[in-house]
Amino acid sequence: MKALNTKTPYFFIAPALLLLGLFSLFPIVVALVISFTDISLESLGDWSSIRFVGLENYLEVFKDPIFMKSLFNTLFYVIIGVPLVIICSLAIALLINFGKARIFRAFRVIFYMPSITNVVAVAVVWSYLYNPQLGLFNYVLNFLHLPSVPWLTDPTMSKVSLIALAVWRGVGVNMIIFLAALQGIPKTYYEAAQLDGATNWKQLTKITIPLLRYAIFFVSITTMIGWLQFFEEPLVMTKGGPLDSTTSVALFIYRNGFQLSNFGYAAAGSFILFIAIIVITLLQFRLQKKEVDY
Amino acid sequence: METMKLNSVKAKPQRKSSVKARRTNRMQQWITGIILALGGFLISIPFIWMILSAFKPEMEVMQIPPTFLPKEFTLENFVNLFENMNFTIYLRNTIIVVLCSFVGLFLNAMAGYAFAKYKFKGREKLFYLVLATMMIPGQVTMIPVYLILNQLHLTNTMAGIVLPGLVGAFSIFLFRQFMSTIPDELLEAARLDGASEFRLFLQIILPISKPILAVQGILTFIAGWNSFLWPLIIANDENLYTLSVGLSLLKGQYGGNFALQMAGSTFMVVPIVIIFMLFQKHIIEGYTISGMK
């Protein structure tokens, strides 16, 4: 390689790295520091009024009934939502992959569409569909002589309704990942199995699913991380209501930070979420390793 | 076609069962197609209902039972959005955000290029640092970034809205992956001709990187058009609202006017759907190819 001006590469990476440093890495440090202080809106004008409070925010947040509720809700979203997304996207990917005609390519587009559309627009549309009097869903139910469902007004049902919306949005991307993985499986495996007279079901359970293990692992990790941060759907659709039954941890942090301006308190909450995400991800890696050992 | 031929060749000894097998096979194909078509229809219901309702007058939307097709086709809702609801300003701001995010795309490409094609001190470490930023949840950085922007006097400005999301680690990563496949000889030749490093990047690297630029460009457009969180946090002034923030405001203020809301949503969703339809091959294929490497 020709001797280059050694500054050149740094000139190329500098703008991006500066921005990432300022808006991604440095904020972590800031978040950690302010989570031990009582910083709020008033102290922004006068930095000397900020008090160091030690672990008080962390202790306080675990006593906060709304935080505990948001923790429960987030677990509810994750435990129901993540398996649903994985199963639906895998099933759709398998069906599309099974089809031989060209038309099956069109299905990719249709199922992918919800994931590129704006979350606010989508939440607005679904709020209309969920509307108890004028909504399409209840109309269809009544038309079939079934009782109306309190989609967004019942504490448990409202969580389920938000999950339905998020699953609808989440299937597309994961389906594409599964399709890519499916196309990577050598055709010869199936040809050999067919010669041996293996049924479609046998081929699915003995060849396809085992070979998709890495893709399933990848999708479950990313989906899990995403759902632990469940935020925009409850923010736009329910604002956390009714009675905080849809408030997620992320929404709790947002509310404490930007509506109540308890920055320190919110930062403590965000660190708890961060640690939870890291622990759960590491746990999944552990489990995956064990499986490989077999 | 090919597999069909193959099958018939293989199954020659037992012709009868092969005919039967082919028939069940065709049946299975049809059933799969029908299941997917039904699923696709169910998935599309929110879109269909949104578009249909956007062209109904407010009175018709309030009717029970609802009409399927608009009985009285109207553009009044859209006119209303732009004449009485500030959607012109929201649209202008959204376009500014999109244009700025293309600057960010350029910065990502620059960084990706340097990581791919230069050897320099700390390259590996810096690149891992970039990748590490992908794992930081948005909720952790949200509050500190707001405080930082406030300290820089950038709250309630366009710069404050755009800067936090301008560059992205994943995009840098994809650019690096693509650009490391460009042969070094090409660059050497241009250097011998006396091209400066920056011109090399502009006139050789970028044109070669068209496929990845196309994918990233479309994704950047979609992300910019949909940008919601930072405008919501940073903008106090309606003059800085983007379409999605404006739409959520509309939902709060005109909660009962569903036709108006559907018109707003249609205006946000349909351009993206059209762009997606036009470029879906690039997005789906390019995204998976570059992403799974």
UniProtKB/TrEMBL annotation, chain A:
The keyword Cytoplasm does not apply. It is a multi-pass membrane protein. GO terms for biological process: transmembrane transport. InterPro entries: ABC_transporter_permease, MetI-like, MetI-like_sf. One of its GO terms (cellular component) is plasma membrane. Keywords: Cell membrane, Membrane, Sugar transport, Transmembrane, Transmembrane helix, Transport. The chain crosses the membrane at residues 12-36, 75-97, 109-129, 160-182, 211-230, 263-285. It is found in: Cell membrane. Belongs to the binding-protein-dependent transport system permease family. This is Multiple sugar transport system permease protein.
From TrEMBL, chain B:
CDD domains: TM_PBP2. The chain crosses the membrane at residues 30-52, 89-114, 126-149, 161-179, 200-223, 258-279. InterPro entries: MetI-like, MetI-like_sf. It is found in: Cell membrane. SUPFAM superfamilies: MetI-like. GO terms for biological process: transmembrane transport. Residues 90-279 form the ABC transmembrane type-1 domain. Pfam families: BPD_transp_1. The keyword Membrane applies. Belongs to the binding-protein-dependent transport system permease family. This is Multiple sugar transport system permease protein. It comes from Fictibacillus solisalsi. The lineage of its organism: Bacteria, Bacillati, Bacillota, Bacilli, Bacillales.
